[in-house]
Amino acid sequence: MTILVVAEHENGAVAPATLNTVAAAAKIGGDIHVLVAGANVGGVAESAAKIAGVAKVLVADNAAYAHALPENVAPLLVELAKGYSHVLAPATTNGKNILPRVAALLDVDQISEIIAVESADTFKRPIYAGNAIATVQSNAAIKVITVRTTGFDAVAAEGGSAAVEAVAAAHDAGKSAFVGEELAKSDRPELTAAKIVVSGGRGMGNGDNFKHLYALADKLGAAVGASRAAVDAGFVPNDMQVGQTGKIVAPQLYIAVGISGAIQHLAGMKDSKVIVAINKDEEAPIFQVADYGLVADLFEAVPELEKLV
Amino acid sequence: MKVLVAVKRVVDYNVKVRVKADNSGVDLANVKMSMNPFCEIAVEEAVRLKEKGVASEIVVVSVGPTAAQEQLRTALALGADRAILVEAADELNSLAVAKALKAVVDKEQPQLVILGKQAIDSDNNQTGQMLAALTGFAQGTFASKVEVAGDKVNVTREIDGGLQTVALNLPAIVTTDLRLNEPRYASLPNIMKAKKKPLETVTPDALGVSLASTNKTLKVEAPAARSAGIKVKSVAELVEKLKNEAKVI
């Protein structure tokens, strides 16, 4: 049994999501190979080779694979997949974009966002916004799976010494082209990887008031998230959204400020270790999942909290 | 150009679902069903393209039970021109749905196919990408902006770090993200008119599609419940608990 893990990378470095995905592969058992596809990704391949538990790194370095366009990357994966029992990718936007295309080309069903490995062919995944957990068995010859990164503890980024092998295959479907991108700039930790997340909701009132959360977050070394209400009201950009339709986080500590706790929001954060809710409405559903609830005006409580931590 | 929109009948997003006692699935008896929210956004985008004069006809399609006609009628009331129901009783996996949709695409020859990014019941986020693979079309997933320009469509996509814009050759597949648009409500006169619009029913057999799947759901369980928390009286008490009891800061 050999498992192919599709590496997620950005700015010439392996993204942390790759380490969680390798951890899921290790639970399945067997040799783990990592595919690094992109343009000028020699450095990424070298760092991927150091990931603990990786036996081999395949590098597909070609201009056609830049920006991970699925029309070009999927045929590459289909060609490589023939030699593997499992193909895994993190459930990032890239993983979600590319892998179903691979699965359909292989004529197999995909299993999305697994949170646990029961055996080599049986996995657990959340459905209905996390309100039910399904155990799914696959009898496909090649199992195509995306991994919810918060379900698996990352393996060590150092300590491995895998061989790096170049893949010559070049697939350029010529059907799509990258036009541009607009990335949100932030010095704070990445939302999905942060140990502490401070999130604001509609109760923040306006975008300017998020400065209270930024101040608290900087003191805690935390990332800042938001509910959909805060994003839709234009307080903050949408890549900060936590929830079923945004990012899924599972930090050590999640502080929900002015968030009522709709099920779509809970789907994105209820696996956090400790949840704190600060809300002036004591009936807010967020208090049903919060380990520590504080019924208070956030504009008094948050600055005070910032002083005391 | 012709636009094809796929819609799914799902449990209403406000319903808190319960897992059946025998762990065979989720209890959907007597639960309110609706059009999947992302599919509503897909219908809205198609209607806006028609209002701009870009789209000439909107065909809406659903793969599912007879009752999915309700959701197709809703789409017709929102502005779709005609509807196709691929009638299938079983709960289908994404690949089977994509294969049924592929057969409809072959027949209808749309220039653009719009789907939601995911259904809120299975949370799979697969069908659009699979349909793109089967048809060989380019795909613009998680779209927050769609602009048709000549023989291409520019799609701005929501990605993890922000936004990305790609140019796709037509015909293409687009899947909608929440911020693409705000769906309209169906007016009563339009709901009445929608009853007269054509709705064709076909079977997967007639389309020559097999609904077999390589996946099997063994059981469905309720998630582990969180133990009840406590309410603290002050910020000082909160900080003390986080430091000494939970030890997370």
From TrEMBL, chain A:
GO BP annotations, alphabetical order: fatty acid beta-oxidation using acyl-CoA dehydrogenase
Record's cofactor remark: Binds 1 FAD per dimer.
Gene Ontology terms, MF aspect: electron transfer activity; flavin adenine dinucleotide binding
Cofactor(s) listed: FAD
Role description: The electron transfer flavoprotein serves as a specific electron acceptor for other dehydrogenases. It transfers the electrons to the main respiratory chain via ETF-ubiquinone oxidoreductase (ETF dehydrogenase).
Family affiliation: Belongs to the ETF alpha-subunit/FixB family.
Protein name: Electron transfer flavoprotein subunit alpha
Organism for this UniProt entry: Pseudomonas xantholysinigenes
UniProtKB/TrEMBL annotation, chain B:
Keyword Electron transport: yes
Alphabetical GO biological process terms: carboxylic acid catabolic process
Protein name: Electron transfer flavoprotein subunit beta
SMART domains noted in UniProt: ETF (SM00893)
InterPro entries associated with the record: ET-Flavoprotein_bsu_CS (IPR000049), ETF_a/b_N (IPR014730), ETF_b (IPR012255), ETF_beta_N (IPR033948), Rossmann-like_a/b/a_fold (IPR014729)
Protein family: Belongs to the ETF beta-subunit/FixA family.
Pfam families in alphabetical order: ETF
Domain Electron transfer flavoprotein alpha/beta-subunit N-terminal intervals: 23-211
Role: The electron transfer flavoprotein serves as a specific electron acceptor for other dehydrogenases. It transfers the electrons to the main respiratory chain via ETF-ubiquinone oxidoreductase (ETF dehydrogenase).
Top-rank lineage group of the source organism: Bacteria
Gene Ontology terms for molecular function: electron transfer activity
Entry-linked PANTHER family: ELECTRON TRANSFER FLAVOPROTEIN BETA-SUBUNIT, ELECTRON TRANSFER FLAVOPROTEIN SUBUNIT BETA
Keywords noted in UniProt: Electron transport, Transport
Names of required cofactors: AMP
Oligomeric and partner information: Heterodimer of an alpha and a beta subunit.
Hydrolase as UniProt keyword: no
SUPFAM superfamilies per UniProt: Adenine nucleotide alpha hydrolases-like (SSF52402)
Originating organism: Pseudomonas xantholysinigenes
